[in-house]
Amino acid sequence: MECKYLTYHGLLLPTISHSEDSLEYFEKFQVKDDDVFAITYPKSGTTWMQEILPLILNGGDFTPVKTIPNWDRVPWLEETRAALVMDKMTQPRLMVSHMPYELMPPSFFSSKAKVIYVARNPKDVVVSSFFFHQMASCLGDPGLFEEFLDKFLAGKVMFGKWTNHVRSWRLTDLGDRILYVTYEDMIEDLKGVVRRFSDFLGQKMSEETLEQVVSHCSFNTMKTNAMSNYSLVPQELMDSKKSAFLRKGISGDWKNHFSPEQEEKFSAAIKDEMRGSNIQFPWDE
Ligand code: A3P
To answer: Where are the bilayer-spanning segments (predicted)?
Structure first.
């Protein structure tokens, strides 16, 4: 399949899911005060957030996560589906986005909408993305892992450089409108993180509901949920025989793929670009 990208403010966006119209819709979108955004760089836990957030906001009602595909349940604001589903959503609306902070729509900045930003170790992000490109033929062949690493570091991948994305969102002046978590926090203590989300969003949750949400959002359960595992997407667009969308769901898989030389080069490049930012991640220690 031919792979096409458009360029938006210097970022590559796949035309399978983005268009001039969808980006105009994104820019003109009227954000409301009780909207909730989960923001991620691709392959950092977006689908996981699309599962967790509706359960928290619905007080543990499992109907949406069992009946609505993740892309319509918690749509990407910049993607073509947004215009089709957003009007039907009730407040508080849940959305995801991969956009860097400075490209958010003007109405976002004057609103009180809340944001949860999920970051993931870039070494695991690039591995996850490499396998995702193998299964999602609409994104184009990633080439050899070595070649894909170079593309990733150069920002010649969808949504550009990881370092620009995390810097833009970690250095905002959104104050208590934004909550920062990592994918690794979620792996380590999902229950604790879901509790933090519900506190942040002002949603009380009983211990029983919390347990149910955590169990439903485990990797193995989500893997069997057709509304979240991308099995509804035709095989010619996403071929799960090449690699599952919910592939491994662990932290540290990079160790199985990076050579010592690749690790050294990658870490040095990321460290260099993060210098001066004062941002510390658990994987830096
Ligand atoms: P892997 O490819 O490392 O397995 P995104 O949704 O942003 O595209 O991110 C996809 C990554 O999140 C994949 O990583 C996927 O397996 C992982 N993921 C999704 N749901 C998860 C869950 N419940 N637990 C752990 N990881 C999950």
So the answer is: none
Rounded Cα distance, 87 and 232, in Å: 23
Domain holding 69, by residue range, is: 5-284
Does the bond joining 260 to the residue before it have cis omega, within 30 degrees of 0? no
The separation between CA 83 and the C-alpha centre of its own chain, rounded to angstroms, equals 19
Tell me which residue of 234, 161, 186 sits closest to 51, measured CA to CA. Answer: 186
Number of domains in the chain: 1
pLDDT exceeds cutoff 80 at 3 = no
pLDDT per position as a tens digit, 72-119: 999 999 999 999 999 999 999 999 999 999 999 999 999 999 999 999
Q: Which helix (H) or strand (E) holds 114?
A: strand 114-119
Q: Is the CB of 223 under 6 A from ligand 1?
A: no
* Residue 42, ligand 1, Cβ within 6 A: yes
pTM for the whole structure: 0.98
CATH classification at residue 128 = 3.40.50.300
- Taking the centre of ligand 1 as the mean of its atom positions, its distance from the CA of residue 197, in whole angstroms, is 18
**Distance (Å, rounded) from C-alpha 55 to C-alpha 278?**
34
9, 18, 98, 257: the catalytic one is 98
Catalytic site residue 216?
no
Q: What tokens appear for 265 in the block? A: 């080069």
Whether 40 lines ligand 1, by a CB cut-off of 6 Å, is: yes
Beta carbons of 17 and 6 less than 8 angstroms apart: no
ipTM of the complex: 0.99
**Per-residue pLDDT at 285 exceeds 90:** no
Return phi, psi of residue 22, to 5°. -65, -35
